[in-house]
Amino acid sequence: MHPPQQPRPLSEQxxxxxxxxxxxxxxxxxxxxLLSSLTxxxxxxxWQVLRSKLCSLQSSLSSISESPHWNDNSLLHNLFPSLLSxxxxxxxxxxxxxxxxxxxxKLLMQSDLDMASSSLSNHLHDLxxxxxxxxxxxxxxxxxxxxxxxxxxxxxxxxxxxxxxxLQIGGIEFKKKALESLLQLLNDNEKSxxxxxxxxxxxxxxxxxEVNSQPLIRExxxxxVSVLASSSEDLRxxxxxxxxxxxxLRILETGSIALKEKAAIAVEAITADPENTWAxxxxxxxxxxIEACRSGSQPTQTHAVGALxxxxxxxxxxxxxxxxxxxxxxxxxxxxGTSVAQEKAANCISILASSGEYFRALIIQEKGLPRLMxxxxxxxxxxxxxxxxxxxxxxxxxxxxxxxxxxSTAFIIQLGEFIKHGNLILQQISACLLSKLSxxxxxxRAISSCISSLVKLMESPKxxxxxxxxxxxxxxxxxxxxxxxxxxxxxxxxxxLVQMLDPKNEAVSKKFPLMVVTAVLGGGSGGCxxxxxxxxxxxxxxxxxxxxxxxxxxxxxxxxGNRLKSIFSRTWRE
Length: 574
Fold this sequence. Notes:
574 residues, 73% helix, DUF7032, disordered C terminus, mainly alpha
């Protein structure tokens, strides 16, 4: 019995054949293969695996032929010729394996069968993807027009499925056009990003970031991943879970300038989630980020330092920043970086300075204190200045730093200016520093103009701790006689103090105005007593003393004067 006759090879290029003709040819070869796979005498085990795949292929082709618009699908114009070539190669191999005695090289045949089997698996994957996408049920599946702003969710979802189908199973040109469409969609329609994650295949998109991808395709994929990762918390989580961080860090390390910039955006976005940030250390990413801050373009530096700031916020891995030498680079960015990079670098240093003695020692080692004090006067961004001042505040825990700050007239005057003209956060940090430093009387007199601002800050319930910081700073400044006179000469400040003493005023804890009034009266000045009495402080203090508010009795005694102190003491005991 002779084996079934093999179909005549096509003399013309398969790509030029109509889809229906190609399908008929594929079906014919497939039928012959299914028969011959039952009669092979060599490598029977391998042919059993191949027969299973051929049966799956037969089912997929049947589903395709039943789809209403499969003939219009240009992806099949590429898939069918390649599939036909694989089947024809398999048919030639089956003919050899059905001979009564195999005379060829066994290792070579095993290799040929394995390669053909692998190709067949790839074809099955592509056809399955095409069927599941639903694009074969649309007459304009591959040439869809770009969805406009008014497109509904179903149209947008279908467009995305079609786009990713082309991306995954099309040739290079299909992939390029698909990525161009994806980037246009992401740029034009912000609402599309959640649908891209739902209907598309982010994992496949990330696989295109690998070095072996075609350069233009890789570049477009990096752009798309960057947009997705930076668009929402959910999407950056998906990019991370699909394994995006490692390839992005490799691009940040070895890619072109343009790719590094986009990769840095994505890495910063991914590390904004503390649950993702730990992986930076696992990938050796801290040193990559530091080098990007040192030698990258300005956009790369700006986002790389943002990622370092995110790393600094995670206790378990922030130690790596010190070990890898982050501080010299961070201080360099403070001096020469963009305004955004300066703010992020300052924030990173601030976080580290507040994290422990190890980091504070490294900052001092880098001569960070004089740099920070100098930058306070040069930088205009309130956010950046705020971070610098927080860092200085953290460093002031060290006795050596406290002595330097206390003796610096320029720094003390700068704090006074922040209290007068800064935002609430700057005012609070400055007030805290003033209350903690051992300032000379001369420097206290130099910033007497901020006293009225401190009194006003005592009225502000937010941020938490501001009232206390302002009160303690005032108590420190009021140890100087001229400053006490400065306060009571200001009618608005006196009225504010008295109003804060009012028991009906619940916006301010009474201990703070009582601290200040006691400090004002501490020098025994008759003028200070008269002005506070005239403003109505006496009645409020009496009421506070009656309800036994701590400090009220002492303030009332001082307001009455030492000559009446014994009378008040007896009255109080009675």
